[in-house]
Amino acid sequence: MCHCQGVPSVSQAPIRQNSVRAHNLALVLQTVANSADPISRASVAGATGLTRSTVSALVDDLIAGSLLTEVDPAPRTGAGRPAAGLRPAPDGPAGLGLEINVDYRAACVVDLTGTLRHRLVEAGDQRQAGALSALTRLAALARHRAEADGLTVAGAALAVPGLVAAGGVVRVAPNLGWQDITIGTELDGLPLTVDNEANLAALSELGVGELPPSFIYVSGEVGIGAGIVLDGSLYRGVRGWSGEIGHIPIDASGPLCRCGARGCLEQYAGQEAMLRAAGVTSVAELAGADLTIAGTALGTALSTVVNLLDVDTIVLGGIYAPLVARLRDAIDAEIGRRVLTGSPIRLRAATFGPDAAMRGAAGAVLQGVLNDPAGWLARS
Amino acid sequence: MCHCQGVPSVSQAPIRQNSVRAHNLALVLQTVANSADPISRASVAGATGLTRSTVSALVDDLIAGSLLTEVDPAPRTGAGRPAAGLRPAPDGPAGLGLEINVDYRAACVVDLTGTLRHRLVEAGDQRQAGALSALTRLAALARHRAEADGLTVAGAALAVPGLVAAGGVVRVAPNLGWQDITIGTELDGLPLTVDNEANLAALSELGVGELPPSFIYVSGEVGIGAGIVLDGSLYRGVRGWSGEIGHIPIDASGPLCRCGARGCLEQYAGQEAMLRAAGVTSVAELAGADLTIAGTALGTALSTVVNLLDVDTIVLGGIYAPLVARLRDAIDAEIGRRVLTGSPIRLRAATFGPDAAMRGAAGAVLQGVLNDPAGWLARS
Question: What residues make up the domain containing B261?
Fold first, then answer.
């Protein structure tokens, strides 16, 4: 049986016979992973259209490969013996999520059930020489702890506040002072991907599954970036450099920005601008400050994003996450004034707060396993 | 044989057996339509992976239904008898493209080969009562001429300068003074779709096939709209209201806009603002005017679009199309200043100039036939 896109969307690519098993393994694994509760083999068959015997053979392989586990059923009051339920294995592959930003580096380990197993954060200026070596040591420590738990780290992903090109090359990360820094595609023998921090943070929300299929994730740090999720997928742009909202012009006669233009969003709602406007020295103190200037600038920029992309949900992450209640009125006022359709916009705080980028990074690794369990089984 | 999306993109939708013929009819028709030259049955088989006998049976049905035609081969110098070539039929279905804008209404007929067969444009203020009735009469005239040619009009699409909701309801078209106007889904017995003019104009470029898969089409009229094409498809947004770039703020202390905000792009680069700044009364006279103010504002707004969506190609349509050479320097200067990556942006004039929206409308009708030839055959 073939599971594929229906007519009239015509693709030129036939499914090769030898990929049918790989395809169906992914279909079964994702069906279990997307189920809120443990799900029986029969239900998987029903949901996928595969026969029960095909499902059972695939499930056996997935259990043997530590991707699925079978759990005892919940007691039922009705007649009949309830079937055992399938769920993702908590002791199989894990994703190693890494982040480097201006004033901290971090690592986390997440297992296939989505549970955070380890979280390591080190504060300090990352613009100094040796920051990448320190991050590598932190990653090794996190991996060591994961392996002590019996987990197998499937790969690593690193979030950086900059524009990333193919081959793990950071084209530019202005606030780190990086230009054309090659991080590469491997970390101590693990496959490594490097990605923009706002993109990975946006992916962390996809894993939670509480948002509509299209939303904008705004990450407030020293710089401001956005992850654009359209129809359930991250929209990366032609070169992977989408979402640079920090330089949306707010006021043509405003303060000079690092980028050379005047009055960019970052000059009103970036971390340094917010601290300066509030007359405080730490992000924690912003919780008691008047944030109208930042909120108004954010509202102006987000109105442009909404007018352009017609999304109705905006997630505020990074330093904005704990400040949503204080920023909301000013943002709403600008959106109400500037968005043509007058439709309400849902504004919410990032689910994982300041951990969003590294959680999204770990999730991206695990998504790779969910997309290609056959590759995982061949490896292990 | 099944032609569908490959692993690892897992879709839950199986292809139904009874849709295989419909799927393959579309595959064959699109393979011929996408070929620059007439293409033999054997080449179609090679390109699709279908057997020659399957292709021949499908081709016979498509010829009988006036969707394909067989043409004599070009003389060849090599050995062997060259095969007859297939191309889309010039005497089968046609698309009826319609447009209503502030100061004109228009209709065109395009056949399946992409040839413009009829073009009717009537100048005049469309904000008056009776504008829609006049458009309906114009549409009937265009259809009558198409039928006199032996064409069968497959459907109609209408381009409007506004936000369109389901059921052919124009939610708001500010420059026409329309609010919640129901145009409906039928025109004299023909299926009718109503869409935003910038969206349809963007589709007209997709049909030409000279652009990369992602680009922004900017339509300059009294208002300014954009059609966003990402990865070969029009991106419509959550409610179909994407691309409203006319209200990107250029200067917070600028002139008051119709929308209630200050300093929107439309106040610098909309048709009325450009005429006022140039001190002229007709669009034709803009060709001799200094357009630095409009170009700079467009460049500022397009920098935001490029920073956000990371596209590298921008098409200027509507009144901008004949003015690209005069606008280019000011646009390029702003993009050079404001786009972080410093990568060059390709800027070009709309292929169909002021006809782009109605050409795209006609093309959308024909794309419907290409996507579902089985539906067309069942109808005729």
Answer: 211-350
